[in-house]
Amino acid sequence: MDRNTIIGLLLIGAILIGYSLWMKPNAEQQAAEQQAQDSIALVQAEATLKVEEELATFRAEEDSAVETVEVDSIEMALRDSLERLTRKKQFGSFASAAEGEEVLHVLENDYVRLTLSNKGAAPVSAELLNYVTFDSLPLYLFDNETSSFDFTFWINNSQELNSRDLFFVPVETAMSSNSAVYRMYGEAQDQYIELTYTLPEGESYMVDANIQVVNMDPLLRASEDQFQLNWQIHAPVHERSRKAEQDVTTIYYKYMDGEMDYISATSFEAEDLEASTKWISFKQQFFSATIIAEQGFSKDNAQIETIELDDPRYTEGFRAQLTMDFANERDPSFPMKLYLGPNHYQTLADLDLGLEDQIELGWTIFGWVNRWLVIPVFNFLDENTGLGYGIIILILTLLIKLLLFPLTWKNYVSSARMKALKPEIDEINEKMKDKDAVAKQQATMTLYRQAGVNPMAGCIPMVLQMPILYAMFRFFPASIELRQQSFLWAKDLSTYDSIYQLPFDIPMYGDHISLFTVLMAISTFFYSKYNMDMAGGGNAQMPQMKMMIYLMPVMLLVFFNNYSSGLSYYYFMANVMSMAQQFIIKRWFIDEDAIRAKIQANKKKPKKTSGFQARLEKMAKDRGLQNPKKK
Q1: Which of 361, 390, 482, 550 is at 20 to 30 A from 429, Cα to Cα?
Q2: Which residues, at least 6 apart from 296, have a Cβ–Cβ distance to it below 8 Å?
Q3: Beta strands in 442-557, from DSSP E residues, in sequence order
Q4: What is the pLDDT at residue 629?
Q5: Residue 507 to residue 498: CA distance in whole angstroms
Q6: Gap between the Cα atoms of 370 and 470, Å rounded
Q7: What pLDDT digit, counting tens, does each position of 539-589 carry?
Q8: Residue from 217, 147, 166 nearest 188 by CA
Q9: How far is CA 610 from the centre of its chain?
């Protein structure tokens, strides 16, 4: 190395050392730098610690989640196993049927839509397609909210099962709009309980039903041959007046070897069935849901009940507990039928089951008049004239008045004779005004006997007309033909007509004014007064009858205001026709002067006392002896 190179290196070194010494920080700068480095280290340490904590938390949560999933899986498996064991213990061989999802199936024809559920293989609602409620809504005999149709049976030795807790399997090949078959299997496919429903196509209200037990002997209780059928519904309100509908809603039933019977519609009670029963009918005003057993329901543990309901949507509740005895055969079955339809007399009569007897047509002679006279004539006019029901009622009224005309004639002639005797009766009353009533009555009876007048002759025709009057009273409110049929201002002849709605409710009268009822009451007043005037001396002898002229129309006005407007219309027209008949008879067929002359002639002839008059005179004498006039 030469001298210049060495000098150069020394100079460079001296420069570097000098620069370092010149740039070296003082004590304060060194302290600040150390503090900054310490802060950076602390932040880095804290960040590292936070990351490590978050990582630890994540790892802990991950481990916990894994453990939870494992615990949940185990718990779920244990719960499922426990539920299976519980179902097995509760339902035995039918444990698999305790699980499922409800599926509805509809049977429908021209008249009925019946909805079935696979849960219990039961009907849950029934709609009549050709009818609607008073407010134009679909008409249901029962609905899925308040109805139940199930049966109870027993397995093992005493374990009780109910079909409502079990899901049946639809037999797909048998499911259609007119039929349904449900099965509940046991331990094998050849062991099952089968329910079959068939609704014929076309115009039919009758559903065929059958329950069959196939190869179930090993599973059911030993020697068990009975199933308990339970049917309960709430009867929906269909008509304008819930009260009127409720008054005729109840349960009817018929024993296999007996007559029809029923629970009173005015009470709510349970009743045990005392013999094998042919059918049970949940009867409403115009419709019925009826179950019919071809071989009869057993009387064992059989009971029916009507239940009071506060819900304004329903009239009342029905419950029937029936026992099905199966035939002693390998695969026993129990065939049944369900009638879901109107209370139309001829429709029910054609079924030949006695169901028509639940239509309230009146007892004994009143019912006979309706069955053999009124209904045939009404049906003939309905089927052959094509007229509205208001005109049909008018024609029916005219025909009945013509049929009763001989009685009307006899009644009028008797009234004319009584009127002809009025001067003599007034004379007796004047002469004997100071005498007691018995003496006047005896004198009056003597006058009747001398004149050949029977004072009761006018009453006998009226009595003979009473069966028809009462029969019509029963016929109109029970006639479904009049339901929702309008005439003039009446929108529905089966219920009351209203021309004015009152802002308040009057006890026993209601909250409306029925014009047909008003017209009936007015016509009754004039008809009664006309008859009383025709009786001549009747007012003087029986002043209480005069009071009835005014009282009876008021009673009718109150009683009929909520009744069938068709009935009020009939009575109104009957009164008008009766007055017209009497006017015609008086104007052109009765000579009162001739009647009076004949009576005067009879008074001059000795006349044998009739048995009836003799009894009246004897009663008057007896009363005179027992009640002598006080001095």
Answers
A1: 550
A2: 256, 276, 277, 278
A3: 500-506, 510-513
A4: 47
A5: 17
A6: 10
A7: 444 566 677 778 888 898 988 998 899 999 999 999 999 888 888 887 787
A8: 217
A9: 55
